[in-house]
Amino acid sequence: MKMNETNEFKSPFLEKKERLLENEVGFVIYDGFPVSKGHCLIVPHRVYSDYFESTSEEVLGLQKLVLETKKLLDEKFQPDGFNVGINSGETGGQTVPHVHIHLIPRYKGDMENPRGGVRGVIPSKQKY
């Protein structure tokens, strides 16, 4: 975890130069370790770790960016579907303590059987 001179967390997301979209609440960047072509992160300007501590304004502004990003990805990559996800807390898989929403384009054939989608975070529970 990167810290600055005052021993505060320095978000790697703020270092990204290429922002695909931006509004008063946050911005959109490509994921540095993409799951698929076009995998994006929607990130608030404010650095905080827990999505559940978002203000109402942040929730609305981030959701607007999710919808705008989906349109952009539809035009650029023509995916067949999407996964939207937020990892909250270490046990929830969060590795960067700056809230971010994953928007992952999905393509026919990118996995053998996608049924269960995000339920795959616990592989034994994905198929039902």
What does this structure look like?
With 128 residues, this protein is of the alpha+beta class. It is built from 2 helices and 5 strands; from the N terminus they run βββαββα. A 5-stranded antiparallel sheet has the order 1-2-3-5-4, covered by helices on one side. A hairpin with a 3-residue loop joins strand 1 (21-22) and strand 2.
The CATH class turns out to be Alpha Beta
Q: Would you give the CATH topology?
A: HIT family, subunit A
Element order, helices and strands? Answer: EEEHEEH
Share of residues in helices: 10-25%
Structure class: alpha+beta
Shape: globular
Give Rg in angstroms: 15 Å
Q: What is the tally of helical segments?
A: 2
Number of strands: 5
Largest sheet, strands/sense/barrel: 5 strands, antiparallel
| Sequence stretches where pLDDT stays below 50 over 5 or more residues | 3-7
Strand order of the largest sheet: 1-2-3-5-4
Share of β-strand residues? 15-25%
Identify the CATH architecture: 2-Layer Sandwich
Query: Mean of the pLDDT scores?
Result: 92
* Total number of domains: 1
Which features characterize this protein?
128 residues; alpha+beta; HIT family, subunit A; five-stranded antiparallel β-sheet
Short overview:
By secondary structure, the protein is α+β, with helices and mostly antiparallel strands.
